[in-house]
Write a structure and sequence with these properties.
The chain is mostly helical and 345 residues long. The protein has one domain. The protein has 18 helices and two strands. It has helices at residues 9-13, 15-32, 44-55, 59-78, 81-110, 115-123, 126-130, 140-160, 164-182, 186-190, 192-195, 198-212, 219-238, 243-266, 272-281, 284-299, 305-330, 337-343, and strands at 6-7, 216-217. The chain has a two-stranded antiparallel ribbon. Helix 4 (59-78) packs across helix 8 (140-160). It is globular and about 55 Å long.
């Protein structure tokens, strides 16, 4: 294939740095939800643009889910179901326990907000599903654990039906998101963040095979994808959509962003920034959890605007440094090292 055309395998090859890019987007999205430094003196148009960019940075989640589906395909294609579960859960659940259990001990047991039952529900991630209204548990890990649990079934369905089953599920999931956004469906309202990311996960399953087989995209196709994503992003600024449809819309934009990054990286346009993204991407899950813990403290504190503004630099930096320290320790725990290494990213 000529240089300048995009190979789908590039998406997998550059996944660690794309994970890092998406993790940073999520951090800035969460900060943007809490305020924009200097917004009081900004021209209204500039304030609107900053707010829009930070608000829509939640597509970092869509990127993460999409890449996770591709990574699961690779893992499942070379492992037994037992090894698949071992590798994935040694990565995610151990990280969850080490980072979040101290938080749950303090909140549920010391402050007596949930008691022992609440502590057990929080620790196992079950509280998000069964006591959704009374928890601020980070939603992404309970969601991704469910995806891990059902993935072997989805993989077999996709394989045995030659993608037809996955396409049907994708159409059904998109329809449910649209209906749930327009109609008063309580189940969707409670878990809209999760349901709205199922389509991009299923799309990741569909495209994982062509990625693994080294399929390519012509220059014309790449231009169409990028032009379409850019137009959609610009239109996004001027329209207001129901929450679920808005997140579904963001999933489409995120695919274009991934394609753009992969193309630019393949043509050697990113060097220093790529190394920075790899630094963040290697510990993207840890960074996600640690920054949510830090924000828990921030939300309970009355901090001056100047200190809050510094969080746009300090929060990602502190989160990644603590994440790196955590990874350094965990990799040296006997029995966890192999699974952690194999499932990283």
């Amino acid at each position: 294939m000529k240089k300048g055309f995009l190979q789908l395998s590039d998406i997998f090859n550059y996944r660690v740095e794309i994970f890092g890019f998406s993790a940073l987007m999520i951090v800035f999205h969460h900060l943007g939800n809490r305020g924009i430094p200097g917004s009081s003196v900004m021209p209204e148009v500039m304030k609107d643009i900053f707010s829009f960019v930070l608000l829509k940075a939640n597509i970092g989640v869509d990127i993460f889910v999409f890449l996770s589906a591709i990574g699961l395909y690779y893992s499942m294609s070379k492992n037994s179901v037992k090894d698949f579960y071992l590798h994935r859960f040694s990565r995610v659940f151990v990280t969850w326990l080490v980072i979040m259990v101290p938080v749950f001990i303090y909140e549920d047991l010391v402050l007596s907000r949930g008691g022992i039952i609440g502590f057990l529900l929080d620790t196992t991630t079950l509280r998000y599903w069964f006591d959704h209204a009374n928890t601020n548990t980070p939603w992404f890990v309970p969601f991704i654990i469910v995806l891990y649990l059902i993935y072997p079934i989805l993989y077999k369905v996709d394989e045995r039906t030659k993608h037809t089953g996955t396409i049907i599920l994708l159409i059904f999931s998109v329809g449910f998101v649209v209906l749930g956004s327009l109609l008063p469906i309580q189940l969707f309202s409670d878990f809209s963040f999760c349901f709205s990311r199922v389509p991009i996960f299923l799309f990741g399953i569909l495209i994982a095979g062509p990625i693994k087989n080294g399929k390519g995209i012509s220059k014309i196709t790449w231009i169409l994808i990028m032009s379409g994503a850019l137009v959609l992003y610009i239109i996004w600024f001027f329209i207001k959509l129901p929450q679920g449809i808005d997140m579904l819309y963001g999933s489409i934009v995120s695919v274009g962003l991934i394609a753009f990054y992969s193309f630019v990286k393949r043509n050697d346009r990113l060097k220093v920034s790529a190394k920075l993204f790899v630094f963040f991407g290697a510990v993207s899950l840890e960074m996600y959890l640690i920054h949510t813990v830090i924000l828990r403290v921030v939300d309970k504190s009355d901090i001056p605007d100047l200190i809050f503004a510094s969080l746009y630099i300090l929060l990602p930096l502190t989160s990644v440094l603590l994440s790196r320290f955590y990874a350094f320790i965990v990799k040296r725990i006997p029995g966890l090292t192999a699974g952690w290494k194999k499932s990283a990213g």
